């Protein structure tokens, strides 16, 4: 335990000019993970093009302005990058101190969604209407607060040097903290977000070094709980069918089955190099639902082909690889857990989102990080990138 | 990992982080693999599915070509009717699915709103007929009998009738120029079936659901030429069926016109004379049956002798081909296909077959000469001829003493042919046939093209039958069980025949050979076969495939494809015998069995040749046959249960000749009255705007 406590990055170096300060060996610029940055920016750029293609003809949604979505998408991305910068500036360590406040705030926000103030979209009461055409999806921010909250609780005694691993009491505390917002999200019902939050909890627990029993127990509890819900008939048949329709479209031929089939046709028909941006017949014909948000990957598949869709996978891969590196390189367990939580989040959400368009995962309403249209998601993922950068920047430099 | 600093992390955490990394990598590889599977491995299949998803076709049917007679008169063409159609796509955009508009439309058209609604609903498993089974993107016809006033009302109040169009559209019409219905020759159209669409799918000219297809006659044999190619516009549509662009446009090609060798004036005359002859025959008393002749059906073929082109082809009973236009109703269909009306759809000239009787004798005469008998030899024409106790009588038991084969043809002496046939049967081994019998009489019939199709350009021609040894064997095999069951040695006539057939039906018996020699027994021919054969005798020996189509001319008149006469054989006749037979057949018309029907005929100017036939049919009245030819034409006529050849058929045939050449009552020739003294060689001209000029 030779943790680099008290190592401060933001140093005042008056002897150097601006350029010198920016390029100094220990400067922030040098400490930023540029590959992570670039892959995030590239994904957002591809996303902008795809949102443009998916919405330029949708006068039913845009009210006649073909730039409606793409403009907002660009604004969201810019704001997201600003939020990232702010997060780096503040630093994840500073945030550690205000985690209870952030957690409480996010809990209030998600709870508000269930109140009459919430807005229902696609059967989920998951949005807050801010007026002016802006809605916010608090569950996105819950992902951050759960990561920070659990990291704070689980790492506290380890980072203090009291223990090597989180003890049972700590784990119970952390799980309890995570359970409240997850329960609310399930009640919305926002199945997609609930699944991502669960994946985050699992990732965080794994990275914290908590006992294997906790990890396995949690997985077992999840699986048997789901089995119990189905076998006790707590769900209507149509709900089960809708869930399973990704594998067998005949179970829900008019709804999910139709959509997944159309999504598969869109992607498959793209072939190796795609039909060209804006040229996809499935996209222009609006055969796939929610194409600027949850099913945006189908636009890439159809119009950019295996090359373009593969590039998205590659960029996500680069991002996750950097995030894993950051997790392993973090100077303390808090940083490791934060980074690993983000890895679990991004990895699961991307896999579920792309997997459902490819017909290997059940359909759940989830955006593709950085690519899908949507402010809350865009802000949240860039804040998460900010957390990763902060973890990276605040560890000791290699010797 | 030199640039990863010492973090003091526990091994467990490091191992878990590596585990997470591996898990993440495998998830991404899974997605990549699946992506490869969908896009690379199965990309083509999905591309096809995507193409089917978003393209809808709108079809503009091609105008069907006309069928013209040799002078350009339309035997079949199209008339313009005002068709009111509804666009389902437009109706479905309305809040009430177009109900209000359709109700209003029903008011204008004087129809029940319900009827209109039923026309535009789509057929599916739960929808009873009437319903629309075509493409929902196709304008759906509501009526094709709109008046100009109704059409105007709809067109002038466009905003009142969104999605409704009133357009003139082509409907088939059989105009019967000069009163020539030509029904069985033209045939008819009916809507295409699903199987036909499927079958034609991969061909050059796929069928469309809206297509009508030729079912019989020329409409069927020249269907692909007449039909043309429909124009197909493919539209890209979105999920809701809204058109978002044009994908492909394939312009239509209007159907070509078929010029036939039919002369509608001659055709009308043939139809009229045939009907008249049958009517007259029904007033004649038949001594054998003790009733008037039934004259239930008949046919007349007028053919160009030198080409095999058909100038007229009449078949009775007749029907009105317009019955088929715009869909046939059940009652009419039943009538047209029923026994009571004696199957008027059948073309008796190509699909009616019966024993030829004595008009078969040129075949037997040729056979005898080829077998070595001298044409000019002396043959006994006795009143009867008996074989083993069985007596074969000459027609009306006449006797002419010793005559040559030419005279035998002229007076149609059966007993001369009995003797010859019996002799040949004996030469071939009689009841114990040689291994390779000569079978001159049967071989010659085949050489005359009998027992097979003539190859006329009409569908479903029948072959007739040459009852040779092979046929006897096959026929016996097929029927012996029934014969042996029915046959009784001492039963009534049919039972005795069955008994005999059961025992020895597989063998050629003397009686079979003898009956066959005068075109009786199991021999069957069609009028078109007889016309082809007599045409060959007239033209020097060439058996032409009879043709009705003369040329296929594109709609704008620019492309002309002549249908040239094609031969399928030569008569097995040497020059001398041919000339002798030709002489004898002229003798039939001047001093033989048909002479009384050609009194006053200008034989020196228009040499007439003829042969009469009166075929006996068991259980029925005699079939009247009359076969004739001049240098230009061959005319063959038959009336089933009509009486004798010269008695029942000859006046009609003579009337047609009179008209063709302009022969007057007193035997003079009035060129002004002649309809067609020489066959029409030229084609009518079709100008680019579709106007037709007579040649």
UniProtKB/TrEMBL annotation, chain A:
It is found in: Membrane. It catalyses: [GlcNAc-(1->4)-Mur2Ac(oyl-L-Ala-gamma-D-Glu-L-Lys-D-Ala-D-Ala)](n)-di-trans,octa-cis-undecaprenyl diphosphate + beta-D-GlcNAc-(1->4)-Mur2Ac(oyl-L-Ala-gamma-D-Glu-L-Lys-D-Ala-D-Ala)-di-trans,octa-cis-undecaprenyl diphosphate = [GlcNAc-(1->4)-Mur2Ac(oyl-L-Ala-gamma-D-Glu-L-Lys-D-Ala-D-Ala)](n+1)-di-trans,octa-cis-undecaprenyl diphosphate + di-trans,octa-cis-undecaprenyl diphosphate + H(+). It is an enzyme of class 2 (transferase). Pfam families: FTSW_RODA_SPOVE (PF01098). Its main location: membrane. The chain crosses the membrane at residues 34-55, 67-89, 101-121, 141-158, 170-188, 194-210, 215-235, 304-321, 333-351, 371-388. It is a multi-pass membrane protein. Pathway: Cell wall biogenesis; peptidoglycan biosynthesis. It comes from the Bacteria. Keywords: Cell shape, Membrane, Transmembrane, Transmembrane helix. Its EC number is 2.4.99.28. InterPro entries: Cell_cycle_FtsW-rel_CS, FtsW/RodA, RodA/MrdB. This is peptidoglycan glycosyltransferase. The gene is rodA.
